[in-house]
Amino acid sequence: MERTTAMNAQMQMTASPAPRALWPWVTVLVVAAAAMAFFVKGYVLFQGTMLLSYAIALVGLNILTGYNGQISLGHGAFYAIGAYTAAVLMDKAGAPYWVAIPAAGLASLVVGYAFGRPALKLQGLYLALATFALGVVAPQLLKYKHLEPWTGGVGGIVLNKPEAPFGLPLTADQWFYLFTLVLTVLMFVLARNLIDSGTGRALRAIRDHDMAAESMGVDNRHYKSMAFGVSAAFTGVAGALSALAVQFVSPDSFTMFLSISLIVGVVVGGVGTLWGALFGAAFIMFVPAVAEKISKDAAWGVYGAVLILFMFVMPGGVMGLIARARERLTRVSSGA
Amino acid sequence: MEIFVQQVIAGLTTGGIYASVALALVMIYQATHHVNFAQGEMAMFSTFLAWALIQAGLPYWAAFFATVVVSFVLGAVVEFAVIRPLHRAPELSVVVVFIGLLVIFHSIAGWIFGTQIKEFPTPFAKDAWYASRLMSAHQVGTIFVALCLVAALFSFFRYTTLGLTMRAAAQNPASSRLLGINVGRLLMLGWGLAAAIGAVAGMMVAPVVYLDPSMMIGVLIYAFAGALIGGIDNPVGAVIGGFLVGVLENLIGTYVVGTELKLSVALVLIVGVLVVRPAGLFGRRVVQRV
């Protein structure tokens, strides 16, 4: 697919890295999120953990799709690989969760890179089909009977929630939520530094015009497959976190629908934006539930309608809308 | 050997369905450079309409043609109401809108008509003269209908002024507009035609896989793969691709892995082909100008 005006529109939206003035706000946000652990309980806390996990996955997918211009309709597969790596390590090898989660990231990194290498040849729709195939194959492979000794087949694997260490006076739910929060902050900082670095500029240059980038000395092959690997690693870590939060993995948790939700989350949040991941995660987490409340019979019809409405109102996602609003504000204030 | 021949023929039959849906995809792709991921669900919805009409007592062919007309209108309306306002939106946003359409049609069909599996009649009588031991009447009929669609579309685009105008509008909308062509109206026409083709495909596949809201999801994936493997900018290639995928899918299912892993293996093979020939078997390589 050739680069269209649509791509150009996305390029303009790529906000410059968060200015320094944003830091106080980020701190407030993190402190508020941490305080949540002591004010809400049970299911809400679980939802918070899942939201953070989705946000990490969306940051990962955005590195690939938003910043590097490679579409993936199969990122659920990497989410699954992360979840299963962590689950198998903990269940079969007795690894502690703080080993299992980085290992999940590493495993996804390797698989992502290995997938990204041959996928170099594919672009646009062809890449969409290839990644889609990945998303379809993953749950089927997890059910495959010769892998059952490890994966537990259709039955999946049950996990224990980690207890708070050092005798901290926290419940397992609170501890894991805070643990996830810290990891989320870490992953966001990592992503931000990556995007701000020379590597990030190379990734964006390839997205905007691969040939021009190549002729400027950017090694397209290296950066594109690396983008796949890093993106998969983020998503894998997110998958591992979700596995621990749910305390259970099974092939049916990682269907095509998850992959589709992830790409929806990226677009709703804002393609090629870091903070969009939070809005996107909130969308895929809460809108289906709200839709079900509105109409039990046609819940997904409501979901689809909300989705289309969202795109009508903000084709650039939430972050696109914010960028537009800010632009208008500065214009008004400078005009006056 | 006989099983092999039977499987190939069964593959050609489903291939005919894939080829029809692939044609519908190519139709919209050529005009807008988008792949309509909701095409399959729109076709499924049309098939439910046909079922309702038949239930209401209409004879098969009357219901058939009524459905084709209604689907045409539906496709045109979707283009006008949902897709046109987004013509300047980023590409991924349009993809997400297609996903939205997909879940809407899926959900509404289940809501109105129920999710239980229904039987759908075939217009080709079991004991018709063209039925044989190797090929059932419905198989012959499906392949025949698919080939008719291809021939009709081919002649439409090649020999009629309207078809030529549509191709012009798809290839170069700006120049076409300057020549006084109403590009927007042609896009509506394209969407309508695609939806009508999809409806025919849906009504042909429903007697085999039975009618339920999920019946077209697999079909869409294979059709998409067929279109890509044949070359998405080439209608004839897409049709050949559709048939190829149908045969491949059936043979893999019978001889290699059984129905469970069929989809996975077929997709992996197709992606393998694409890695070797990135533009598909019959597609043109796009030369980029710097």
Number of DSSP strands of chain A? 2
Indicate how many domains the architecture of chain A comprises: 1
Span of the ends, CA to CA of chain B: 54 Å
Quaternary structure type:
heterodimer
Provide the helix percentage of chain A: over 70%
The CATH class of chain B, by name, is Mainly Alpha
Major sheet size, sense and barrel closure of chain B: none
Low-confidence stretches of chain A: 1-18
Question: What proportion strand of chain B?
Answer: under 5%
Q: Helix/strand/pairing class of chain B, anyone? A: mainly alpha
SSE order of chain A: HHHHHHHEHHHHEHHHH
Second-tier CATH architecture of chain B: Orthogonal Bundle
How many strand units of chain B?
A: 0
Number of helices of chain A: 15
**pLDDT average of chain B, as an integer?**
85
User: What fraction, in percent, of the residue positions of chain B are helical?
Assistant: over 70%
Radius of gyration of chain A: 20 Å
Fold-level CATH name of chain A: ABC transporter involved in vitamin B12 uptake, BtuC
Structural notes for this entry:
The complex is a heterodimer of chains A (336) and B (290). Chain A has 336 residues and is mainly alpha-helical. Chain A contains 15 helices and 2 strands. Chain A has helices spanning 5-13, 23-39, 42-65, 76-92, 97-119, 124-143, 148-151, 172-196, 198-208, 210-215, 220-246, 256-269, 276-294, 299-313, 317-335, and strands at 157-158, 248-249. A two-stranded antiparallel ribbon of chain A has the order 1-2. Chain A is globular and about 60 Å long. Residues 1-18 of chain A have low confidence and may be disordered. Chain B has one domain: Orthogonal Bundle (ABC transporter involved in vitamin B12 uptake, BtuC). Chain B has helices at 2-32, 39-55, 60-83, 91-113, 137-159, 161-171, 173-178, 183-209, 215-230, 235-256, 262-276. In chain B, helix 1 (2-32) crosses helix 9, helix 3 (60-83) crosses helix 8 (183-209) and helix 9 crosses helix 10 (235-256). The radius of gyration of chain B is 19 Å and the shape is globular. The chains are: A mainly alpha (336), B mainly alpha (290).
